[in-house]
Amino acid sequence: MTRYLSDLRIGETSIIQGFDTARLHDQEFAADLEDRLLEIGFEEGLGVEVLHQGPFGRDPLAVKIGTMTVALRRTEASAIILQNGDNK
Amino acid sequence: MTAMRAALIGAPNSGKSSLFNTLTGNHQKVANYPGVTVERRSGLVTTVSGHEIKLIDLPGIYSLNDRSLDEKISREVITGTHASEQQPEVLICVINATNLRVHIRLVLELKTLGLPMIVALNMHDLATRDGIEIDTQRLSEELGIPVITTVAVKKSGVARLIEFLDRDASAYDKTKNNLTETTTRALQKEAGRITKLVQISEGGQHKMTRILDSVALHPFFGLILFFAMLFFMFQAVFSWAEAPMDMIEGGFTIIGELVASNLPDNWFRSFIEDGLIAGVGSVLVFLPQIIILFSFILLLEASGYMARAAFIMDKLMAMVGLNGRAFIPLLSSFACAIPGIMATRTIANHRDRITTIMIAPLMTCSARLPVYTLLISAFIPNTKVMGYFGLQGVVFFALYMAGIVSAIIVAAVMKKTITKGTLQPFLMELPKYQIPRLNQILLGLWQRVRTFLRRAGTIILYAAIALWALTLYPGAPKDATEPDIYYSFAGLIGRTLQHIFEPLGFNWEISIALVPGMAAREVVVSALGTVYALQGSDDQVAQSLSTILQTAWPLSTALSFLAWFVYAPQCLATLATTRRETNSWGWTFFMTGYLFALAYLIAFIVNITAKALMA
């Protein structure tokens, strides 16, 4: 089963496999989401760890990529595919 | 020798603005690009041998994809296609040494344009602190661009950059793009390759940031900290500002009295005393609140906490289609809508920014307090409801809530109609915490205060003078039976307006008082004092006014008047600020129109409901 960044729990780590913006409901919104995610620093092969979740509805997420921390909403995180197998 | 044109460009969190501040000091101009809400900051740098550099600070962007106005303007400026801004001769790309991979991508993208460029490898001190080691020589070779390390927040940290800039424009090499593919992905790949090569040691995550975030972003303690911070900020804005506000008020009273006792009693004295001094004084009195509020905002921004506040509030703001960043401007608007609207500049998306500006005046600002206090103390009995809460306090709270709830509804409606657009992603780097530098805070504070003062000295001043003239001319006839203001232009307007306001239960006295009340909301109190022919200081007027109003107005009128004040855009200064910040008369009229419409509708409903209930 494919896992997405939005499936990670706090403290869990994984590696980015790729992007799938087509699975989002709002296609207009998804249009250049991949480029935006790349621009802020998400990239295939990079390790990610969910550090924090927002206090309301566990949204947004604070994700560690390398030495930086990026905040993104759960919807956006659900477009990021994670590698299988190396999840704890 | 003409000054060389250079532009600072860089991603958010590259420290670009700090670098700009340190390079140009107080020699900077802040304006908007014509027709849009993008801020244009420019300044002058002079090097040792007298080379002058006209520096512009372009908006912080991740790419040149024309996705936001910021990106569009930046691309137009550096490609020389912008209508009013000349193309810079040299680009200075600021990159964050603690986040090379992301920031190098922008350098590579800019390289495709072929302009002369240098790279400022910024936050070098923080990188060293975190154990990151960078081979700058190698970086420069790989990029084919000169790389200069900087520490933007320190004067000494930019010395090498200024030294490098000490040359003629012709002495810079044009960049050459050696990449065949320039998609975001290809550029990212290349950036990753270069980063691996030049980063001798990767360093660890900033420990302090991790520790602080475990509290600040904790689902429970983070929320407590957030609200504690807000509470403290509000306390500060209202209680610390009290003494200086009294001093300013007292100062203006003394100046007014000095004028009164030294000038003959004629129109000129009245102009100086009631027009100039009282008019400007009524706005300047908010200066202490603005200084305290912006000190907090700047401190929270410089420390890195502001991004966390946006993180915490994002979900709630998303419910009305806004983003976490809209929270602070709205919060500021509880003190005064002017700094609140000014603070919307941190919202990158144009539509989100407009929506936030439009609802800012619905936050109950401190100028409404004198009006609320007067009417509540006059009309609402000080009894207890449910055995514990004072009824007066409950009404106060209800008035605040009415504003907030209306703002939520208006924002939701706007986002579904006129500011409709694609949902904006909430992608934001949470920067590492930093200790704010005093000089940067003071510079930011000075810029905001200057903007406020300039406005008080221009548009607000003209409005005050115009209103003064309207309330004074023409004078009352000899056999006058009503107070002078009744016969003036303001009186004429008020009496005309009364026909419109009658369904709200407003009498001609209220209608007239609303006219000078356009200068600032609380002026209505003294204007009512004038119509009911009272003399004395504001406090005295308010006290005796309260007794008069109790007999002069039915309760339904008082409640309707309170409802009116929750909505009515009775503040020319706010409208002037909106005009300036949106750069659009259309939005200014829209704000005025919808607020008046709401005010009228709600006051009307309150009036007939109250009448029906009392009948």
Summarize the structure.
Chain A is of the alpha+beta class and 88 residues long. Chain A has helices spanning 27-30, 33-40, 74-77, and strands spanning 3-4, 13-19, 47-56, 59-65, 68-72, 80-82. Chain B is 58% helix and 9% strand.
Low-confidence stretches of chain B: none
Structural class call of chain A reads alpha+beta
Share of β-strand residues of chain B: 5-15%
Quote the distance from N terminus to C terminus of chain A.
15 Å
Counted by DSSP, the helix tally of chain B is 27
The major β-sheet of chain B equals: 7 strands, mixed
Number of domains of chain A: 1
Oligomer: heterodimer
**Beta fraction of chain A:** 35-45%
| Radius of gyration of chain B over all CA atoms, rounded | 28 Å
Helix segment tally of chain A:
3
Largest interface, by Cβ-Cβ below 8 angstroms: which chains and how many residues each?
A-B, 35 and 46 residues
- The counted number of beta strands of chain A is 6
Question: What is the overall pLDDT average of chain A?
Answer: 88
Q: Level of helix content of chain B?
A: 55-70%
Question: Quick one: biggest sheet of chain A?
Answer: 6 strands, antiparallel
Chain-averaged pLDDT of chain B: 85
Task: Summarize the structure in words.
The complex is a heterodimer of chains A (88) and B (615). By secondary structure, chain A is an alpha+beta fold. Chain A has a single domain, classed as Roll (SH3 type barrels), CATH 2.30.30.90. Helix content of chain A is 18%, strand content 39%. Chain A has a 6-stranded antiparallel beta sheet with strand order 1-6-2-3-4-5. The model of chain A has no long low-confidence stretch (mean pLDDT 88). Chain B is of the alpha/beta class. Chain B contains 27 helices and 12 strands. Chain B has helices spanning 16-24, 69-79, 100-111, 124-129, 136-143, 159-164, 184-198, 207-216, 221-240, 242-262, 267-284, 287-303, 305-318, 327-332, 337-342, 350-359, 369-379, 391-416, 438-457, 459-472, 489-501, 508-514, 523-531, 538-552, 555-567, 572-582, 585-614; strands spanning 4-10, 28-32, 39-46, 52-57, 90-96, 117-122, 133-134, 147-149, 199-201, 384-385, 389-390, 428-430. The model of chain B has no long low-confidence stretch (mean pLDDT 85). The A-B interface holds A 26, 28-29, 31-33, 35-41, 43, 51-60, 62, 64, 66-73, 76 and B 62-63, 65, 67, 98-99, 101-102, 105, 130, 132, 184-185, 188, 192, 202-206, 209-210, 213, 217-220, 222-223, 307, 310-312, 314-316, 318, 324, 422-423, 425-430. Strand 5 (68-72) of chain A pairs antiparallel with strand 12 (428-430) of chain B.
